[in-house]
């Protein structure tokens, strides 16, 4: 098998997602290009750790680990990176399943030694069976999915999206791991942007680095019913603003908001116009989508202002760990 060996890290935290976790692991084990290993990193939940250890005791290529750092997704990912044996480390959400050629498309992009990270396309699986009519595709990042406005195909990007992404091991050697204190912590406020901060830090450490998204590397991500509601939409947009303020504080507004400027000045106005046009044509949800885009922008902007004030008063509240892993 040509190309790099790939380790897959799946971070888990709750037994409520038991069936989803099993499905995620099964999708990795069914890849057309086999993973070197699958690492399940359990975030400070002893009952889930014990249950998964029993479940995969006899499974070749699956390892169950406890998060060795503070509670949260970033430290869980760092634990997986440190334990991984692969030349490339891929990340899959615990409530997602990968299509059969997911790793094959990732691997092919690493033929260019300058490529340091490759992300894919994440498609929502709505609990209700279909997208809520008011929910704009431009805001699919709210539910952890690829959103309208990202360029199609195999393209260079500023940052990959963390639930469907891969990095060379050497990227972490150069830039360190995911920053703790910025991303998600179980069911608490849905902060994010840890992968954005890492990618910007990576390209500063390695200016020649290429980061890509290949939209053929597809995963399908479950969206529970609670996240189909406008209240979650607004809360998640506000939290994104808080997170963006931390990133901008760390890496500077020029880089930290580079992609967001195009998104807010081109993609979102076009989305509002489409929604209003659909409303005039009496198509379902047009006015709701336009209104949701405006509300989402206002919520994110409010979060950014609040986050910026907090960051100025108290300083940056996250830290970057060096990855101390094995070497073979």
**How many DSSP-defined strands?**
11
Helical element count? 10
Which of globular, elongated, flat, extended, rod-shaped describes the shape? globular
Q: Average pLDDT value?
A: 91
Main beta sheet: strand number and arrangement?
Answer: 9 strands, mixed
Structure class: alpha/beta
Strand percentage lies at 15-25%
How far from one another are the termini?
19 Å
Taking pLDDT < 50 over at least 5 consecutive residues as the criterion, the unreliable ranges are none
Radius of gyration: 19 Å
The H/E string reads EHEHEHEEHEEEHEHEHHHHE
Give the % helix: 40-55%
Short description:
This protein has helices at 18-29, 46-55, 73-83, 102-109, 169-175, 194-205, 230-251, 253-256, 258-280, 286-314; strands at residues 6-12, 37-42, 62-66, 88-92, 96-98, 115-126, 154-156, 164-168, 179-180, 210-223, 319-320.
Sequence-ordered SSE layout with sheet pairings:
Elements lengths: L5 E7 L5 H12 L7 E6 L3 H10 L6 E5 L6 H11 L4 E5 L3 E3 L3 H8 L5 E12 L27 E3 L7 E5 H7 L3 E2 L13 H12 L4 E14 L6 H22 L1 H4 L1 H23 L5 H29 L4 E2 L8
Parallel strand pairs: 1-2, 1-4, 2-3, 6-10
Antiparallel strand pairs: 4-8, 5-10, 6-8, 7-10, 9-11
Question: Can you offer a commentary on this structure?
Answer:
There is one protein chain. The chain is of the alpha/beta class and 328 residues long. The chain is 42% helix and 20% strand. It has ten helices and eleven strands. It has helices spanning 18-29, 46-55, 73-83, 102-109, 169-175, 194-205, 230-251, 253-256, 258-280, 286-314; strands at residues 6-12, 37-42, 62-66, 88-92, 96-98, 115-126, 154-156, 164-168, 179-180, 210-223, 319-320. The strands form two sheets. Strands 1, 2, 3, 4, 5, 6, 7, 8 and 10 form a nine-stranded mixed sheet that branches. The protein has a two-stranded antiparallel ribbon with strand order 9-11. Strand 1, helix 1 (18-29) and strand 2 (37-42) form a beta-alpha-beta unit. The longest helix has 29 residues, at 286-314. The model has no long low-confidence stretch (mean pLDDT 91).
């Amino acid at each position: 098998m040509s190309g790099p060996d790939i380790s897959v890290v799946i971070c888990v935290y709750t037994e409520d997602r038991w069936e989803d976790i099993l499905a995620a692991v099964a999708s990795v084990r069914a890849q057309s290009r086999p993973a070197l290993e699958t690492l399940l990193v359990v975030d400070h939940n002893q009952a889930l750790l014990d249950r998964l250890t029993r479940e995969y005791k006899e499974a070749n290529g699956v390892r169950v680990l406890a998060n060795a750092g503070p509670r949260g997704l970033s430290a869980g990912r760092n634990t997986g990176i440190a334990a991984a044996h692969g030349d490339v480390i891929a990340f899959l959400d615990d409530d997602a399943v990968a299509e059969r050629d997911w790793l094959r498309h990732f691997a092919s992009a690493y033929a260019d030694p300058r490529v340091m990270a490759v992300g894919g396309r994440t498609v929502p699986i709505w609990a209700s069976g279909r997208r809520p009519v008011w929910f704009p595709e431009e805001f699919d990042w709210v539910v952890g999915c690829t959103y309208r406005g990202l360029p199609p195909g195999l393209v260079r990007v500023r940052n990959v999206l963390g639930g469907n992404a891969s990095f060379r091991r050497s990227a972490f050697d150069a830039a360190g791991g995911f920053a703790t204190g910025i991303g998600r912590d179980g069911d608490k406020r849905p902060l994010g942007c840890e992968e954005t901060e890492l990618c910007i830090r990576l390209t500063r450490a390695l200016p020649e680095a290429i980061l890509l998204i290949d939209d053929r590397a597809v995963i399908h991500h479950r969206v529970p019913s609670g996240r189909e509601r406008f209240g979650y939409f607004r809360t998640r947009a506000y939290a994104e603003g808080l997170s963006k303020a931390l990133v901008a504080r760390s890496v500077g507004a020029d880089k930290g908001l580079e992609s967001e400027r195009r998104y807010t000045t081109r993609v979102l106005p076009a989305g509002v116009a489409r929604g209003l046009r659909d409303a005039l044509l009496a198509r379902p949800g047009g006015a709701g989508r336009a209104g949701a885009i405006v509300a989402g922008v206002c919520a994110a902007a409010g979060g950014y202002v609040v986050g910026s004030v907090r960051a100025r008063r108290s300083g940056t509240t996250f830290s970057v760990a060096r990855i101390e892993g094995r070497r073979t």
